[in-house]
Amino acid sequence: MIGRRSGPTSGTAVVTGGGAGLGAAIAVRLAARGLRVVAADIDLAAAERTAERVGGVAHRLDVADAEACRALVAGTPDLAVWVNNAGILATGPGWSTDEATRRRMFDVNVHGLINGTTAALEAFRPAGRGHVVNVVSLAGLVPAPDETVYGATKHAALAFSVGTQLDLVRRKEKGVRISALCPDGIWTPMLFDHVDDPDAWPSWAGTMLQPDDVAAAAVALLDRPAPVRSVPRARGALARLYAATPGLSAHGLRAVVWRAHRKQRAWATENARPAVAPVPPAAAPGPKAAAVPGTAAVPGTPAAASSTDPTGTPDA
Asked: 222-258: b or e for each residue (b if 16 or more CB lie within 10 Å)?
């Protein structure tokens, strides 16, 4: 029934990577449904801007720090929702990512998501209620060439999210839910500096989404929980087909890349890049890196850092 809300409309929601982009859009929607929002971000100034906008609280958080995640949960007695949104992106073929960048991507995209999920479950399981929403990506459903290592982190994030939800089901903990959201490319700070990057083509292979479109889908999961939700849904089905037929996908790859590059060039021409507040000096990104709301960039690498998930994959 339209307008009906079966999910939480009170208590506190924590949004990681909440300083800008998708995280900020999710924070706005959570506040609109009555939740007190904690905008958690490694960039405290960005978190404060979101908190001021939604009447919430800002909190500096590096999601790769497990104890910091647990401390935030411990300091939030009425926690009802935890959204793992922070993430970073590095483009290029699988062999091109240096070790430091590769490790940082796994620390944020995988361990950060696990840290947030397990910390939230420490509060949710004893209470018998609570919802974790993990922003993954279509790159978690299908390999994304030239966003290869990024896609590997998203596959791990999806496997952990679904597996842990099934762990809860097996133990009959029905009041606690984990949902994985797998959106197509999103026009956020993560992609602003990649619009001219030819290796970022997977993010333009499908439908370029606006943050509020994905935020609406994320918050809708509170009322209609699902283990996995793709945005758009048809892209999820197509991604699964690609993943199930890698040989067939390889034959069509050249055409997919050509079309994606064409869309990427058109997007760069037709869409202005919004101004983005700089990250703190200590987290300033290196060459080919994007500003990162929600985590620190890896200095001096050819990677791109970011805070929400943009991906695309053929597409994510």
From this structure: beebebbbbbbeebbebbeebbeeeeebeeeeeebbe
Q: Is the pTM of this model over 0.90?
A: no
- Asked about 154 being catalytic, the answer comes back as yes
Clarify whether 150 is annotated catalytic: yes
C-alpha distances out from residue 309 to 9, 180, 183, Å: 25, 12, 8
Point out which residues pair with 130 in neighbouring strands.
Answer: 176
Which residue is catalytic, options 150, 242, 263, 288? 150
Which helix (DSSP H) or strand (DSSP E) does residue 170 occupy?
helix 148-170
Domain residue ranges of the chain, discontinuous segments joined by +: 12-244
What is the distance between the alpha carbons of residues 131 and 22, in angstroms, rounded to a whole number? 18
12-244: CATH number: 3.40.50.720
State pLDDT tens for residues 30-67: 999 999 999 999 999 999 999 999 999 999 999 999 99
**246 DSSP assignment:** H
3-state DSSP of 70-108: HHHHHCCCCEEEEEECCCCECCECHHHCCHHHHHHHHHH
